[in-house]
Design goal:
25 strands; RNA-binding; seven-stranded mixed beta sheet; alpha/beta; 566 residues
Amino acid sequence: MATPTEGTPSHFIRNIVIEDLQQNKNASRVHTRFPPEPNGYLHIGHAKSICLNFGLAGEFGGLCNLRFDDTNPSKEDVEYVESIKEDVRWLGFDWGDREYFASDYFAQLYQFAIQLIKAGKAYVCDLNADQIREYRGTLTEPGKNSPYRERSVEENLDLFERMKVGEFPDGARTLRAKIDMASPNLNMRDPVMYRILHATHHRTGDEWCVYPTYDFAHGQSDSIEGITHSICTLEFEDHRPLYDWFLEQLNIHHPQQIEFARLNLTFTALSKRKLLQLVQQGHVGGWDDPRMPTLAGFRRRGYTPEAIRTFCERIGVAKRNSTVDIAMLEHCLREDLNKRAPRVMAVLRPLKVVIDNYPEGQIEELDAVNNPEDPSMGTRKVSFSREIYIEQDDFREEPPKGFFRLSPGHEVRLRYAYIVKCTGVVKDSQTGEIKEIHCTYDPETKSGSSQSSRKVKATIHWLSAAHAVSAEVRLYDQLFIKEDPDDAPQGLDWTANLNSHSLERLTDCRVEPFLTNAKAGERYQFERLGYFCVDSVDSSPGYMVFNRAVTLRDTWAKVERSGRRR
RNA sequence: UGGGCGGUCGCCAAGCGGUAAGGCCCCGGACUUUGGAUCCGGUAUCGAAGGUUCGAAUCCUUCCCGCCCAGCCA
């Protein structure tokens, strides 16, 4: 028997699995499944479920199936099937040859239904949707039996067969389980098992005119696949008695359904309905817009699968409704990229600096460290010359208290180069806008030289004006201005909380020339700025486009912000 | 007012009768050629009230608050 992995944070579901294993339940087998409906792209909430299901199977020597819950042809599409497979694979999980579809079981499910009809446990009901609702009763009042509840087995069989071949229009009849119209659990008040839908299914085409509901399809699919632990979210807790009922009546393998709380994130919408709306109404560029909480969006943004997996492990699994701080996710990304991303210098908003005492025409090739966290990543050369660009933010004509960067009369270190002192500012005579600044450098302070140990308060990044390459950089902020997107002013809906500044395109940036060879999806740390990723859609060797995945922690920005508040 | 499930630090989350883990955020400080990283240090008595017990976040009772369910969606 597989033993628990040391150091893996435990949670109640993992504990159940461990206990089952100890008691030799299911012949010590662990078999889970990830069951997405192919009606949208996978998002970070699904990642929690994927990591849970594949993680448990992986840890205990079990298996996890990928099963598409495709019982509603009117909402589903192959585009989603393909994206889901790509995203699960990208996250780092492998379902081997166990790629299943609920629609693979339509014939079997149909036989199960007939079995229940024959046992007097299911009947064809002629009530329409409105009538079924009326007969169902309310939360506090019991329902009434359908007038069609006592049809003979023969009639039920005949009717169900005719439903299947398409003799009746959509909605004309349903097949219902005969349970208890007075049950305090509404799901047990003769739930619908099959509905008539003359729709073309993305896999079975027009073969079927009836489709099983989730309740009738899910548990039986789990059973057919030999699933041991059927993990789902909290809203299905009320369905568990029904899940169990079908399996018991059918007397087939009975997986255990276990529910956990779905993920919520601050400043993020995670319902499929909302995400679909964001895409369809053009609030974002598509399912893979880097601002989207979809796996495709995170991937394009520059997130690593490792960071997302670590995040899913750290947030834990429990039954309490909760909303995780988005800062937790960002932290996981920084932590991962800090170790792996090569550093490089980039200037997002260039400000020209002329070093007056540096020889005109002279170029020095300076050594720059690729990753101080990992010496094995080596060094590279950066060109230094008389005219350079620095970040506009790194110069203040009138520095506020605590500003350590460049200002008139003050010194800063140019990373990997020299200490320079600001000697003058050139402004546009009309607008007063700063056009360029002048400095002198101290030749004794070259990085790495014996005299280089002089201390200055700050080090800033820079790029040689003649060597730097132009690029576009896209800065992203939260898609919503409110921690809870649903917290909208009265009368307005969640779209009122959309952040109109969630995307900022900077088209006059400079980067180190070797970045021209960077490939789509590669991630770099732009020193002092954040982690950036080569955009996989719009970037090309002739026109580089970088997405900011996440900023670096910025204590100066924090100080400035709190200063402004005072 | 029916049923189901929850309520432990600002946000997640361990704990399962023996005297409150950890992570994120935040605040100090050390170090630093990224105001990055790293390293130290700081912050809860467990929804409330009773009760059982030598001892309770953990057991019992009552109460309060939150979420889910009246799709032929999943």
